[in-house]
Write a structure and sequence with these properties.
The complex is a heterodimer of chains A (about 240) and B (about 260).
Chain A (H helix, E strand, L loop, with lengths): L8 H11 L4 E3 L2 H4 L5 H8 L6 E3 L1 E3 L10 H11 L4 E3 L10 H14 L3 E4 L11 H10 L5 E4 L6 H10 L3 E4 L8 H8 L5 E2 L10 H8 L5 H18 L3
Chain B lengths: L12 E6 L14 H10 L2 E6 L9 H14 L3 E6 L5 H14 L4 E4 L1 H4 L9 H10 L2 E4 L5 H10 L4 E4 L2 H4 L7 H11 L3 E4 L9 H8 L5 E2 L9 H9 L5 H16 L3
Parallel strand pairs in B: 1-2, 2-3, 3-4, 4-5, 5-6, 6-7, 7-8
The chains are: A alpha/beta (about 240), B alpha/beta (about 260).
Chain lengths: ~240, ~260
């Protein structure tokens, strides 16, 4: 649902069927553009299937553009959502603690996974790893998932994985040579979550990267589904 | 359920675009010697043409020596000759070293890292050599439309593989990429590869709507990137079997191992 041309559930499920993907966490591209009520509309649209899990999109609520954290969590509960995605670059709201702490506190108390998407346009873009670290360190019970980190992520990620047990990495754009193997070997497969990038990007690419990574079958299963199911299940709403 | 067999083919996979060694810009693990050979094979690639990172700017002689040693030791690795556009006499030495004393696969031009324009005079000796010996040149993005026309007709026996254009096309953008790809389609000795970090949904079928599959070569960009990304989308692309074979093997054999 992140691409304007894939505007309905059936179309997305059709692509997933062709790629062999059973379930997906999806956000609304309208919600990303701060369209009022888009998160709730997403939840309604997904009622017809149990294969698509709704992910709310938000940002700091002080301008009134988004729900307050507690109101949002109630909407999430009603809509069957257990995850939140933020776009600090797209929304031009940097990860300053004073700006995000009210939201982060509410999410952390409920262990609601936070997907951080810096709208990374290319492998060479600089991401706000300092802001990411601040979030992870100040809310150690909050699962934080860095989205679309690229081939240049390792010099930050290795240090952050040492410091932050609550940090996870989406694999949809993670392309270091033998990178998955090295993270699994040095840290753990539990740090990685398979991401497809659908419907903009080709899921066969990150899928094959896991399959051909040289790691054990259990680790592959964890990355492809188990880790996400655990985080989704641990959220308390 | 997804099985490894979903990504299987019954012919050798050959890769026109690879690198090796350490890299200043980011961490590149397991990128040398036996570890690199193991990762290449783990990905199911039988042969890859390699330009070491160290030679992309100016350490060409060291880079070519490295590849001569690696290709002697590992059948999975073929050398790409790198030349220094700032030093004409050294260019002659390196061409002789790579193609007369050793069996390098072709040449690699990287004007971006050489910090020269695409049409820099320092490449002329290598262009003439490639033309004379019917070699291919893997060219980081290649020149502009007008210069490519000039090269194609001026060096008709050389083959030009314009790196990366096969993966930046998303089927929609009407920009310079489309102009280049339209040129690839019509110039006999100009090709492109699939190397690149971005993998758009169904990008390869869309690419083949624009250019014939005979003009596309599989390139992974390993170990700059995880080879599995471009390989995965190519292996499961909804394209005819003949196209898949040509892109992953046949076109490579025709250009790298002619005759």
């Amino acid at each position: 649902m992140a691409h304007e041309r894939i505007s309905n559930v059936e179309a997305l499920l059709g692509i997933m069927d062709s790629k062999g993907i059973d379930k997906a966490l999806v956000f609304s591209s309208f919600a990303k553009e701060v369209h009022p009520g888009a998160n709730e509309e997403l939840c309604s649209a997904l009622l017809k299937t149990d294969r698509l899990l709704p992910c709310f999109t938000t940002m700091p609520h002080y301008t009134g553009e988004c729900q307050s954290p507690l109101d949002m969590v109630e909407s999430m509960r009603l809509g069957g959502s257990r995850a939140v995605r933020i776009f600090p670059v797209h929304h031009r709201v940097s990860l300053h603690l004073w700006l995000w702490e009210e939201l982060l506190k509410v999410l952390c108390e409920r262990r609601i996974p936070l997907l951080v998407d810096f709208s990374n346009p290319t492998w060479s873009a600089d991401l706000d790893y300092d802001g990411l670290r601040t979030v992870c360190m100040n809310y150690p019970e909050l699962p934080v998932i860095l989205m679309r980190a690229s081939v240049s992520a390792d010099r930050y990620i290795y240090r952050l994985f040492d410091e932050c047990p609550n940090l996870y990495l989406d694999t949809s754009y993670y392309q270091p040579h033998n990178g998955i193997y090295n993270i699994v070997t040095r840290f753990s497969a539990r740090r990685l979550l398979f991401g497809s990038g659908l419907p903009v990007y080709e899921p066969d690419s990150p899928l094959f990267a896991v399959i051909r990574s040289g790691i054990g079958e259990k680790d592959k299963q964890d990355i492809l589904s188990g880790n996400w199911e655990r985080l989704w299940g641990e959220a308390e709403l | 359920v997804i099985e490894s067999s979903d990504f299987a083919v019954d012919f050798p996979i050959k890769d026109i675009h690879g690198h090796c060694g350490t890299f200043a810009t980011f961490n590149v693990p397991d990128a040398q010697g036996a570890k690199l050979d193991a990762v290449i094979r783990q990905n199911g690639i039988s042969e890859v043409c390699i330009a070491p990172f160290i030679g992309l700017s100016c350490a060409c002689a060291q880079s070519n020596r490295m590849m001569a040693e690696l290709s002697d030791k590992y059948s999975s690795m073929r050398g790409l000759c790198l030349i220094d556009p700032y030093d004409a006499s050294e260019t002659e030495n390196q061409l002789a070293y790579c193609f007369e004393a050793n069996r390098f696969a072709g040449l690699k031009f990287h004007p971006y890292y050489n910090q020269v324009p695409d049409d820099h005079k320092g490449y002329e000796a290598a262009l003439a050599y490639a033309d004379k010996h019917k070699l291919f040149i893997l060219w980081h993005y290649g020149g502009g439309v007008d210069y490519l026309r000039e090269l194609s007709s001026g060096y008709p026996n050389a083959n030009f593989v314009l790196a990366h254009y096969g993966t930046v096309w998303n089927g929609e953008a009407c920009d310079d990429t489309k102009k280049i790809l339209e040129l690839v389609a019509i110039l006999d000795n100009v090709y492109t590869d699939l190397a690149g970090s971005v993998c758009y949904l169904d990008a390869l079928p869309k690419l083949l709507d624009l250019i014939p599959y005979e003009k596309v070569l599989f390139g992974s960009d390993l170990c700059f990137l995880d080879a599995a990304f471009q390989l995965g989308q190519t292996l499961r692309a909804a394209i005819p079997a003949a196209a898949k074979y040509a892109i992953l093997c046949g076109n490579y054999d025709r250009i790298v191992n002619p005759g």
